[in-house]
# Entry
Amino acid sequence: MRVLDIAYSRDAVKSLRRMPANEAKRVRQKIEVYARDPASQANNVVQLKGRDGFRLRVGNWRVIFDKQGNVMAILAIGPRGSIYED
# Structure
């Protein structure tokens, strides 16, 4: 089992700072759990259609990320309805 490194985009960091602290902590924990053991979150992760990347579901929040080799690049974090709009 290999552990993925996590790289947050500037937008993702900004989103984490804006959301309530307890929600941000929960989102970060889920990301770290996925990076350590992707199979543990298999039912919460879906490959996106129409664009590159994957979606991790954390309650009402969505984390859009891409896996590039050994790096999990967090592209965006947001509420479930508006995260898919570009």
Remarks:
- The CA atoms of residues 16 and 24 lie 5 Å apart.
- The longest strand covers residues 71-79.
- The beta strands are 5-8, 45-47, 54-58, 61-68, 71-79.
